[in-house]
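Progress note, project year one: complex with pyridoxal-5'-phosphate.
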Amino acid sequence: MEIYLDANATTPVLPQASAAALATMADDFGNPSSIHSTGLKARALMDEVRARARRVLGAPDGQLLFLSGATEGIQTAVLSALAALRGRRDAGEALPKLLLFGATEHKAVPEALKHWNALLGLHLQVLPIPVDRDGRHDLAWLRAHAPRAGLVCTMAANNETGVISDLDGIASALSGSAALWMVDSVQALGKLPLRLSGRPIDYAPFSGHKLYAPKGIGLLYVREGAPFTPLMAGGGQEGALRSGTENMSGIAALGAVLAAVEDGHTFRNHEVLASYRDRLAAALRDAFPGVVFNAPSTHCLPTTLNFSVPGLTSKLLLDLFDAAEMRVSGGSACGATKALPSHVLEAMGLPDWQVSSAVRLSFGPAADAQFIDEACARIRACGESLREHCLSVPAPSLLRPLELLTRFVVDGACCYVLADPASRHCVVIDPLPELTGRLSQWLGCRDCTVVAVLDTHSHGDHASSAAELRGALPHALLEGAPLDALGWPEGAEEITLGSLRLTKLAIPGHTRDSTAYLLHSAQGLQRAFVGDTVMPGALGRSDFAQSEPLAFGPSLRKLADTVGPHTLLLPGHDYDDRFACTLSTECAAQPLLARVLRGELDAAGFAAAKAALEKNLALTAYQTVACGARVDGCAEGSTVEMAPAGVLAWLPKPSGLVLVDVREPYEGRLGPAPDLGGTVRQQAVPLSALLNALPDWLALPAETPILFFCRSGHRSAQAARALRRLGHVQAWSLAGGLALWPRARDAALSV
Ligand code: PLP
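Model obtained:
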């Protein structure tokens, strides 16, 4: 059973609401503008729902319009207020200078303000109202700025944190100002008594789908006498304030939800909801020691919890919860390639780690005790899974399997643990400050003996955390001899890890001390850790103050002479999840690099060509620093996505198809095993250990299809792109991942 804890995003439709919607479609399908009996019945239903909404919202007077949802309501309110301001300006009146919005508003509000401000040619200053650490508006600031404001927008309750605004405090800060006031009441519907008419609120938009009505129906309250300009002109519906035939099934469903609010039985009261919230919070504390709640429960909706766990990103937590069939939301909106930090938590001034680890858990007021019990049990199971996999303390002392290579990534910077699984001796390469705690726990859990902590160079974008990590390691280091600045034992030719050997090669260029570490096994040279000298998809960096462009070309040639064209190179940064490269792949992707290696460009020519290339690509300063000079774009061209129909066509064939689950082990234990097809060879290779499997996959016959899969198709696409870029053209990713597989498979089979 799915545990849906993302009610602030949307809710399922209440059974009585869908029944009401179906009845209007099947029986009472009239157009409320028709004057025959069928139309009159529809109008009566609409009037009845509007009257109910007036009671629930405390709005006996003013206008209450049906429209498509809050975004339309916000546009209508902003247009109305700004059109009135423009009218005053055209009449020669001096205009207020500011349009104010709470810094934690939903994006629909500031975007609407900017849009209509520009479109109406007002060009007023659009300013955020600061909030304090608890997410509440700075009322002194508001009081000081209100006299110069034409419109003030503040929400009733925040969608990410559940923080409830002090509406009476805001009203008092606005008293004496002529500013109009919009209160985005989306998250308050059915959860807070709003008393709209009792407050000097001019506009209040709502969306039905946040409270068990379907999407596409909403309300806008407009105070009696507040300026109004219709957004939609046409047939004159809604008293010509909002034209377009009314969404009668949506209105009927909303009516059923409002009836449920009024009947007092369907939804739990505040005390019960708060007790549910407290139980969920207790489960989170048990599961994730050190969990921090990002807003104080004393002035939050009882149905929202926003929390962060030290050392765990939102992405990891989301994958974990999803594996346990629990739908929650990242405090950050995850874009296709990067997690965008939450503007709400940033506005509250929370530390970066709290912002990047935030998760929102929200439920609707129809939740019951059994649902909360199950949610708490699954939260505890998530914590247990993390403990078992050493991602949380206290970790049970089990001897866990150890891979040759494990990669950790923080904002594109890579850190590697290289281990000899037999002796459990290992070396950490390029430790990152953010990882000290996690690495020491990870190594301790696996009973690793750390032989060395190495840097490939003195870093430009962060300090080496080698000393810090050495101090935090649970076991004594084996380092005996004095170390050089990068952590290599002075005078040593090599570092041995069981049968593995690590040697070093000076490759000055990126920095004066840039060094490659070469990994040899009995079979020969296996991999090279090259720091920022070669980055997949980008020219190696030579843009830091201490870099030596003159040494760059000779160093690259020295590397090429030592490792040859096909050794896997592991970079110090990997912004686009390419995992590894070879000089052969990079020369194919980067003609400039090929010319350097062929000795056709000296270092000065290389620097000039690189500068010209950066200019041609019109890279922003950020991209130049972050990516070096990208020469083959951030994403590879051809698609790796394989639709379920394609997968189904493969499965019965004896094609040697290899299926690879790239989810992390802590996700695997929480849900049922994926069923992708009977007898096919299936491997589990989490992304963090992908580097181990690359050589075997690259050694397969070129026509062997390898299909990666994960929860949503994002990580599997990364793996497939990386393998394809390294030369295996039959690397694919299951489009939509396991989340969509059952439905997509059934649809494909039914064709
Ligand atoms: N305002 C708030 C506070 C919201 O939470 C949302 C939806 O998430 C909106 C506005 C926009 O609502 P809709 O997308 O239903 O138009």
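Residues 69-71, 106, 108, 155, 159, 184, 186-187, 207 surround pyridoxal-5'-phosphate (CB under 6 Å).
The chain has 24 helices and 29 strands.
No further modelling is planned for this target in the current period.
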